[in-house]
Amino acid sequence: MRLEPIAAPGPMRRIGLPALALAATVVVACALSALAGANPARTLGLMITGAFGSKFALLETLNRATPLIFTGLAIAVAFKAKLWNIGAEAQLYAGALLTVLIGTQLGLPGPLAIPLMALGAIAAGALVLLGPALLKTRLGVDEVVTTLLLNFVMALFISYLLEGPLKDPMGMGWPKSPSIPRDARLPRIVDGLRLHWGFALALLCAAGVWVIQTRTTLGYEIRATGQNPEAARFAGIPVTRVIVKTALLSGGLAALAGFSEVAGLEGNLTTDLSASFGYTGIVVAMLALLHPLGVVVSALFVAGIFVGADSMSRAAEVPTYIADILLATALLFMVLAILLTKFRVVRG
Amino acid sequence: MTEIVDILLSASFWAAILRIASPLIFATMGELICERAGVLNLGIEGIMVAGAFAGWMAVYAGAPLWVGVAAAMCAGMGFGAMHALLTVPFGLSQHVVGLGITMLATAAAYYAYRLALPEVTNPPRITPFQPLHIPVLSDISWLGQALFSQTALTWAGFATCGITAFVLSRTPLGLAVRAAGENPQAVEAQGLSVGAIRMGAVIVGSGLMAVGGAFLTMSAFSSFFFEMVNGRGWICIALVVFGTWKPGKALLGALLFAGFDALQIRLQQTGLGQIVPYQVFLMIPYLLSILALVLMSRRAEVPAALMTPFNRGDR
Hints:
The complex is a heterodimer of chains A (348) and B (315). A two-stranded antiparallel sheet of chain A has the order 1-2. In chain A, helix 7 crosses helix 8 (217-227) and helix 11 packs across helix 12. Chain A has a domain at 69-281. Chain A is 73% helix and 2% strand. Chain A starts with a strand and ends with a strand. Chain A is globular. With 348 residues, chain A is an all-alpha fold. Chain B is mostly helical and 315 residues long. Chain B has one domain (2-112, 150-299): ABC transporter involved in vitamin B12 uptake, BtuC, CATH 1.10.3470. In chain B, 71% of the residues lie in helices and 0% in strands. Chain B is built from 14 helices and no strands. Chain B has helices spanning 2-9, 11-36, 44-60, 65-87, 94-116, 141-147, 152-170, 172-182, 184-189, 194-220, 232-242, 247-267, 271-275, 278-296. In chain B, helix 2 packs antiparallel against helix 12, helix 3 (44-60) packs across helix 11 and helix 11 packs parallel to helix 14 (278-296). At the A-B interface, helix 6, helix 11 and helix 13 of A face helix 5, helix 11 and helix 14 of B. Chain A: This is ABC transporter permease. Chain A: GO terms for molecular function: transmembrane transporter activity. Chain A: It is a multi-pass membrane protein. Chain A: It is found in: Cell membrane.
């Protein structure tokens, strides 16, 4: 078999195939829950109501989507330039660390502390990705492996800090950092509802990335570099500088996830601050076809699967890992579906 | 310093090197085969988890140990087939598909574990592979303990390396695999199918990765834990680069790496471990892998068509 490009794919193909991919994911969900001995329809129903069925559920989903929008944007920006940043997890923790350091050590008043924490976080995340980016551009070291390995190094570094110099003396022995003061936390958008301004910041970032990608020279250069670095270089685009700038942007965005989780939700730093948000961001970005506004939608979808699965597994005997399987299958089905909107399979 | 000398002279240190290297050798050979054929397999981390679970589960359910190894291999080949289908004929991004397969295989193993054992707090144990007693060699006083007290699976790992090296460099099949990774057009000109060769390489390679994972649950430990693979797959990808895509050098890399790993574990118990936090020791393997990549970057002999999909009829 081989692939043949389709000159003008019709709407049936462009909408039908991605819809089919989602339908296939639902079929997998049913099969998995049947495998667990549960009623598939009931499992799906519980997942949907658990994610979107009540005000509480919806807010929980929005909260869970917030870090995923940041990491999803970080990945989308990087992958667009074919910079394979798999290290959003490390960048997130770097951002969380700076947020806690600035929030607890400087004793600044809230209105001053919050922007400084965000800027510190961005700088830390950008710095963490700068290393692999420079190794890639200067020495040709593959960034996939270096960013992946740095996730493990960062996790150990955080664990050391939380058991050593940054350990909360009032923490009853738990490895966690002291909490940042109340006035340095991100306030809630609506009083009494558990949704903080981190979510609004995430939406703002999505809009910002969209503007950068569609309305600025850097956006054009990132796209050109991603599509064909040789051609971009020939056209006079400083490819190396573009990759470094992309890395700073991507690392900074991932770090904001850490900032938002600490300053908006948790108040302190623990080793389990991130539920693999850095890795899940890859799925979020791919499902959004690397489109910054699409990232918001796909982050809500992905967050819904996680929140829904958590809530469902309390009522039905289906393990929560169903969420991770569904995410991976959705990703694989979707990339295949998108390919088949542009190519047709022919024999020979 | 005397503590380090003591460690280096102890037989258990050398035995540990071979033990730690074993899963890496299997998985590194698996990745190497995929990459020589032109396919980067980032599914490795998840496939190792799936292998660790499948092998352990089969034995826990009553199968003999070698049947467990076969079960692990089949699980690996299954996920390998998915990876191969998506990246070879469909030519999808090997990065995205590989990470997707890692997520899928990991989650599938965890899901199956939770289904099979819903309410266990202490992971149940199996009787793992026992050290193989080799007549004469195992009885040599220091050397026997240091080098010849390994399980059959470790020896199988070394054999796998030898077979991989032989097949790749000395047989027509190996030539075809290497050519698929260097110059796919030439393979097609010979009347061979690049797609079939690459798919075969990815499936076989993934099977080996899974056996590497199974070593953890069936030889090194006797239970399945979440997160037990812990980045070993990614380290193997670094080892392939370090070994410049050659089985012998990759084996050497795995042994060297295992040596540092065995050393850092033992250094934690010494006076140095009192001063330096244990997390620093645990960082060493990952930092070494990054260092290895940096050192080898100048003379990397990357297969020319690595990560380049081949679509018959394209120019």
